[in-house]
Design a protein that fits this description.
Largest sheet: 8 strands, mixed
Low-confidence stretches: 398-426, 434-539
Subcellular location: Nucleus
Strand order of the largest sheet: 13-6-7-8-9-11-10-15
Number of strands: 16
Family: Belongs to the lariat debranching enzyme family.
Structural class: alpha/beta
Protein name: DBR1 enzyme
Number of helices: 17
Shape: globular
Keywords: Hydrolase, Iron, Manganese, Metal-binding, mRNA processing, Nucleus, Zinc
InterPro entries: Calcineurin-like_PHP (IPR004843), DBR1_C (IPR007708), Dbr1_N (IPR041816), Metallo-depent_PP-like (IPR029052)
Radius of gyration: 22 Å
Distance between the termini: 43 Å
Mean pLDDT: 79
Number of domains: 1
């Protein structure tokens, strides 16, 4: 079957689906499935915009609301993960996944589903070490810390995915797995994004948690987005025994949604089960893992480690047996079809009646309630609501939570010794919020349209086969060029070339002699997707 893969679409669903329809008319190519690797922006109304972690002037309604209201329907089954620019309050309603609109399915914080026999997994958000070991405690209305921490990857999701034993065909993450750039054409990557050089050579660009999953899951395909540059890599994995067959992963990082000529090169042919139906299905092993790990659910800000074989835990292996998988199948009467139970849970944006003062509320989604009841799982949002009511009943105030800085300074050290979400490089193409500021940010809902992109050429051929070491550590001496010279030239961001990272200051601008800023400084990456074309030219 044909699978189309998109990078960050930033709410431009009309453009994305029109591109697919254009492909069909011009090239007679019709994808059976569309995957989106984050920054989907399922924004239903003005309140959702207030929950999206971008500066206020970049908040724009875009076109998702038309699909949410039923005015339009996605012409192809669409499955997506969350990124770091999302309506977090909306996606939080579906921690285990669910329909955000008819024919558009969100995988949840982490998830695995099947379509025509193809096993598709993903993990939402980006990595930040200071939030990695916390529970999912955030809920709307968010403060300046939780609006960001809400989309940070948590160790429990990685732990769940690491319990999987059966092969994964396709996996999606928003940020890149750390070290993946050592298995593709680094020379061309750094030519397009010279400001990545320091992190590439020090092996700190990307998510260590995603690298851990890549090494464990060994999927046939891994797709990422986030850095708004195309990059292909091919990684041959180590085998654990002589009996184990060699496995390799084809990695592709995607730019944001592009004109049809590039989109055509982001469609892959995937082997599928010709006898399988056309419905999206639950994955029995994943459901069994959710049931097995349900006792580990945490909705507090307290940091904790997942069980491991270190003498401190009575149980550390939560992988499931064939018997447990069989029990799930029997519970479902061997009918794994995901019910089409989409429900409106918020008012839809009405262009004729704007409501700029609409406030976000914490919502329990009926899809999640039904899912948890069916499989005996904890409804995370219900647990959060109960915890809030208990604190309120005890007369405890929320000020400590509201004022808590998401820096993790009072926490135990993370199991990862660096704090990198793939965002620490200066990238003039992307918005990056200042993690140290934001208390005075205006949460009103005005913004500008995204700018158009320019067409590129790209080949998804995969050469440069290397063996992935267990440690995932590659020294700067190994930051050599690969032989994959087919990676396309990017039309984006040349303003950083020719300057060292130290020459491009990331410090606050303006302010007094003590460094106090009079004007809030926003670090930018991928700014082109938010700013209008004329603003782009002068920024």
């Amino acid at each position: 079957m044909k699978v189309a893969v998109a990078g960050c679409c930033h709410g431009a669903l009309d453009k994305m689906y029109e591109t697919l329809e254009l492909l069909q008319r011009r090239h007679n190519v019709r994808p059976d499935l569309l995957l989106c690797c984050g920054d989907f922006q399922a924004v239903r109304n003005e309140a959702d915009l207030r929950c999206m972690a971008v500066p206020a002037k970049y908040r724009h309604m875009q076109t998702f609301y038309r699909y949410y209201s039923g005015e339009k329907k996605a012409p192809v089954l669409t499955v997506f993960i969350g990124g770091n620019h999302e309506a977090s309050n909306h996606l939080q309603e579906l921690p285990y996944g669910g329909w955000v609109a008819p024919n558009i399915y969100y995988l949840g914080y982490a998830g695995v589903v099947r379509f025509r026999g193809v096993r598709i997994g993903g993990i939402s958000g980006i990595f930040k070490s200071h939030d990695y070991r916390k529970g999912h405690f955030e809920c709307p209305p968010y403060n300046q810390q939780t609006i960001r921490s809400a989309y940070h990857v948590r160790n429990i999701e990685v732990f769940k995915l690491k319990q999987l034993k059966r092969p994964i065909d396709i996996f999606m993450s928003h940020d890149w797995p750390r070290s993946i750039y050592h298995y593709g054409n680094k020379k061309q990557l750094l030519k397009m994004k010279s400001f990545f050089r320091q992190e590439v050579e020090s092996n700190t660009l990307g998510s260590p948690a995603a690298s851990e999953l890549l090494q464990h899951l060994k999927p046939t395909y891994w797709f990422s987005a986030h850095l708004h540059v195309k990059f292909a890599a091919f990684m041959q994995h180590e085998t654990n025994s002589k009996e184990e067959l060699p496995k390799a992963t084809k990695f592709l990082a995607l730019d944001k949604c592009l004109p049809h000529r590039d989109f055509l090169q982001q469609i892959i042919d995937v082997e599928h089960d010709p006898n399988a139906g056309d419905s999206l299905e639950y994955d029995a092993e994943w459901i069994a893992v959710l049931k097995a790990t349900n006792s580990l659910v945490n909705v507090t800000q307290s940091s904790w480690n997942m069980p491991e074989q270190n003498g401190l835990h009575a149980k550390w292996d939560y992988s499931v047996t064939e018997e447990a998988i069989k029990e799930v199948l029997e519970e479902l009467n061997h009918d794994l079809k995901i019910p089409c139970n989409f429900t409106l849970t918020a008012a839809c944006y009405d262009p004729s009646k704007p409501q700029r003062n609409m406030e976000p509320v914490h919502t329990i989604n009926p899809q999640t309630t039904e899912f948890c009841a069916q499989f005996g799982l904890t409804d995370i949002n219900d647990r959060i609501q109960q915890a809030k009511e208990e604190r309120s009943g005890r007369g405890e105030c929320e000020e400590e939570e509201e004022e808590m800085d998401s820096t993790g300074s009072a926490e135990e050290p993370s199991e990862y010794n660096t704090d990198n979400s793939g965002l620490s490089s200066f990238n003039p193409d992307e918005i990056m919020l200042d993690e140290e500021e934001g208390g005075d940010e205006d949460l009103s809902t005005c913004s500008v349209d995204p700018s158009p992109d320019h067409p590129h050429e790209f080949s998804t051929s995969f050469s440069d086969i290397r063996i992935m070491p267990d440690s995932m550590v590659v020294s700067s001496d190994d930051a050599t060029d690969s032989n994959n010279e087919e990676l396309e030239k990017s039309g984006g961001s040349k303003q950083g070339e020719g300057k060292s990272p130290t020459e491009r200051s990331l410090k606050r601008i303006g302010g007094d002699e003590n460094g106090n800023s009079g004007v809030k400084k926003i670090k930018r990456r991928n700014q082109a997707i938010y700013a209008a074309e004329d603003e782009d030219k002068t920024d």
